[in-house]
Structure formats: C-alpha cells, structure tokens
Specification:
Helix content: 25-40%
Oligomer: single chain
Number of strands: 10
Radius of gyration: 42 Å
Low-confidence stretches: 264-273, 425-437, 479-484
Distance between the termini: 133 Å
Strand content: 15-25%
Structural class: alpha+beta
Number of helices: 15
Shape: extended
Number of domains: 2
Mean pLDDT: 77
C-alpha cells in the first residue's frame, strides 16, 4: 500500500463501515487455520461495523455450500496418487489463496515426499493428517454460525426498475467497476458494479465512510495492482456521490493494517511484543504531556533529582519545572508484567526522556533566572492499559487507545546539559564573604573575663574562718545543759 492510502486507512478505521466482496468472505473457509482465525478475529472485533451489500450476500450464499463440503487437501493427494507425479504443479497449488491456503506442516510433509519418495503407507498417513486438519478448521470456523453471527447485516436489494437502469449504465460506462468481467459473458458480469452502487447508497444513508476489502486486484479497482494503488477516479466518484470517503484495499493488506490494532501472534496467549507495539503507539500520541505533569508532581515531593542537577550544572536551583519533552524513548524490551486479567494488563517499564526546564534561584537576596537547561531522566512507570476485546479462539488482544493509568515508581538522573546565561562570579560567595562580619569586629578581648574576674568576690572575703565551727562548738550546748 502507498503511504497516502495507509494514512487514509488509519483516519477512517475507527468509524468506517467494513464492506467485503464475495471472495474475501469465502477466504475465511479456504485459508490455513491460523490465517482463518486471524480473519475471524478481525471480523468479530469489528462486527458492529460490518455491512454486506445485497449483491455480495447473493453470491456468498450461492457458493458457501461448495466451499463447506470441499476438502482442499484432496486435490493435492490425487496428484500424488498419479504417476508420474508432476511436482511443479503440486508446488504451484501451494500458491493458491495468497499462499495462505495450506498449513506449513502439510507443506513440509509434501516437500519431504518429493525428496524421499511417495509410498502407499505415506499416503494413508497423509490422508489421516489432512482429514484432521479439515475437521479442525470446520470446528474453529463453523460455517453456519459464522454466517449468522458476522454476515447478517445485509443491505437491501435494488428494485427491478433500479436494476434495469443500472444494467444500462454499466453497459454505457467503459471503465465501470467490474468492466473486466464483461468478458465472462455470464449473468453475473455486472456484480461488482451493483456492489459499487449499493455501497454508495448505504454510505449516504448511514453517513459513514467505507473500507472496501476485495480480492480482485485487476484494473477494475486498482490503477497499480502491484503497489495496490486504487483508481483515483473511483475515489473521486464515491466522494462526489456520497460526501464520504472510501478506502479500497486488498484482503491481505487489510489484515496487515489491522495488526496495528490487534495482536499479531495468534498462538500465544498474549504476545507481549505486540502489546509493546500497541502501548508504544498509544503513548506516542498521548503520554508526553501527561507524563510531564506526573514527573513535575514527583519532583515536588523529592529533591534528590534537583540536588544531582545542581551538582552537574554548578548552580543553585530553587525549583525544577519541566516545560516540554524534546525526546523520548520507551524501552519495552526491559519490562515486567505485573498483572494480566480479562479486563486489563499492567506492566512496569521505563522511558528515557530529555526535558527542558527553567533554572531559577534566589541568591544574595535577589531572584535569578539563568535560562533554560536540559536534563536526561529515566522514569520507571507502571502502565495500566484496559483491554477492549480479546479473542475467544486465539486470545488476540485489542486495547483501548488511551492508558487507564500511569504511575511513576522512580526517577533516575542520567545527565544534564545547559547554555545557562550566568557566570558563577555574579553571585559567588565573595560578594557576601564572612569578612564583612568577621569575629575580629567583636573580639573576645572586648569582654575578657578579666573585666569581671572572680577575684572581685574571692572566697577569701568570706572565708570559712569567719564562721569556724569552733564558734559554736558542741561543748557550748552539751546535753548536760538541757539534760533530762
């Protein structure tokens, strides 16, 4: 797909109708199991957006019974039973259905037979193996229930008079959608044109854009089928008729684009690499401003980072308030899943950010603004992302496009740089040196103890001799003087 077309897909993915042509719907029964499950997951995730034109429904209903009863492995086994085996044609069959028609295990068995030879015992074993694959496919992708569950939103048919008018228009429009089917000379050569007109009518009635998924990559729909560039005249006509946009895309490209919104690895319970891609996409759009607020709140409560910044920048900083993130890098390779349940996933990781801040300080009785500096921080965070949908078959996960919560666990200082417009001499301690109020101004000599020496009140002035115990000897009041 071209970059322009990818951008268009992204812009209208959320709110568009998904419209599939007949062959696209049938691929869910013809692809290998894993690919079929992937397709089913997308359909179930976006089931509310699926709309089936009446013409597609007619064609799908006509072919579904043949697809249901067909065992796609039988054709190859029959080729292996014939002698000589035409291995070139066998390998060619593997390219059917966008090369997704057969499981890798099956392909590997066939290639080994080409090298080691085919025996009756190997053919019996191969038949048993393919029967199991076929039954497993029909169990996982039950045709009747899938039809009712996913493809039941069908549009209205044209009236007889409308059909006659459209058939005439189709014949008179050389490059009408489906013009290459005129060579088929059958009653359904106008099918694509009817689908085209029914999409236009429903887009007008619903006031919705359309993503049209087709397996037909001929000039009917694409100007460049290799690059899958749609015909500009069709895009313009659709907008002129409906005032809505349309994206025309192949089924395989559609599923590739959906991997942005759905977990790619369908066999893991939760493929965390895809979670990382999803969350990275969320935070590319959402996190810088929100994260910055939380970083500032964190630093208001903890001076550790501010102290480290002062040491590196050699300037006193009263407050640190980051004004903008200039660079950011999430390291999702170094994370730990903390919680994973049916509603949400919580994991711990870190983001390295480079942020600008204003350096302000109060020195020497004055306020100073030294300009802007830049600091590199490693911010450890717990991120909670709510699950929007999870597949019952593959556990593929789709997340809501905004994180439920973000909690800062720790912040590490990595480094800082600046072009601050100050000179340390402007507020050096020399401006208010202790010499201005040196202790010499009030030397201890000014109030020496000599000024009030203890000699002024020496104990000699009131020597114990003045009141010697002899003056009141016990003999003066002998017990005999007040005896009993």
């Amino acid at each position: 797909m071209t970059n322009t077309h990818i951008a268009s897909f992204k812009n209208i993915w959320e709110d568009s109708l998904l419209v599939f042509d007949t062959n696209s719907l049938l691929r869910i029964y013809e692809w290998e199991i894993d690919k079929a499950i992937e397709f089913k997951d997308v359909l179930k995730y976006k089931v509310e957006s699926i709309w089936i034109p009446h013409q597609v429904n007619l064609e799908f209903s006509k072919h579904i019974e043949d697809v249901e009863t067909n065992n796609k492995y039988t054709d190859i086994i029959k080729r292996l039973e014939k002698q000589p085996i035409k291995w070139g044609k066998v390998r060619k069959v593997f390219k059917r259905w966008e090369s997704h028609g057969y499981e890798n295990d099956f392909k590997q068995r066939i290639l080994e037979m080409e090298t080691t030879g085919v025996s009756s015992e190997k053919l019996i074993e191969l038949k048993q193996f393919t029967d199991n694959l076929h039954h497993e496919h029909r169990r996982v992708i039950p045709i009747n229930s899938i039809f009712d569950e996913l493809f039941s939103n069908v549009g209205e048919p044209f009236s007889i008079s409308e059909e006659q008018k459209l058939l005439k228009e189709f014949d008179e429009t050389p490059l009408a959608p489906g013009f290459m089917d005129r060579e088929k000379r059958n009653a359904n050569s106008h099918g694509d044109f009817f689908i085209w007109k029914q999409m236009q009518r429903h887009s007008v009635r619903s006031s919705r854009n359309v993503i049209f998924i087709t397996l037909d990559q001929k000039e009917d729909w694409f100007r460049d089928k290799e690059q899958q560039v749609p015909r500009e005249d069709l895009l313009k006509e659709f907008y002129d008729e409906t005032h809505n946009s349309i994206v025309i895309i192949s089924l395989t490209s559609f599923l590739e684009e959906c991997s942005v919104y759905l977990n790619e690895d369908i066999r893991e319970l939760v493929a965390y690499s895809s979670i990382q891609d999803e969350v990275r996409g969320i935070f590319d759009e959402w996190y810088p401003e929100q994260l910055l607020v939380k970083v500032n709140e964190y630093l208001e409560e903890d001076d550790t980072i501010k102290d480290e910044m002062e040491n590196v920048l050699e300037v006193c900083i009263d407050t640190v308030s980051f004004e903008g993130v200039t660079e950011q890098h999430f390291n999702f390779d170094d994370h730990e899943i903390i919680e994973d349940d049916e509603c949400q996933i919580v994991f711990n990781t870190y983001v390295d950010i480079t942020a600008d801040f204003d350096a302000n300080a109060h020195c020497g009785g004055e306020d100073h603004n030294f300009g802007t500096a830049s600091v590199e921080l490693r911010v450890w965070i717990n991120i909670t992302v709510e699950k929007e949908w999870q597949s019952e078959d593959s556990n593929r996960v789709a997340f809501k496009r905004e994180a439920e919560s973000l909690e800062i666990i720790d912040i590490e200082f990595i480094g800082a740089t600046s072009d601050l417009n100050y000179e340390p001499d402007d507020y050096e301690p020399d401006d208010y040196e202790p010499d201005d109020y040196e202790p010499d101004d009030y030397e201890p000599d000014d109030y020496e103890p000599d000024d009030h020496e203890p000699d002024d009140y020496e104990p000699d002035d009131y020597e114990p001799d003045d009141y010697e115990p002899n003056d009141y000897e016990p003999d003066d009041y002998e017990p005999d003087d007040y005896g009993h």
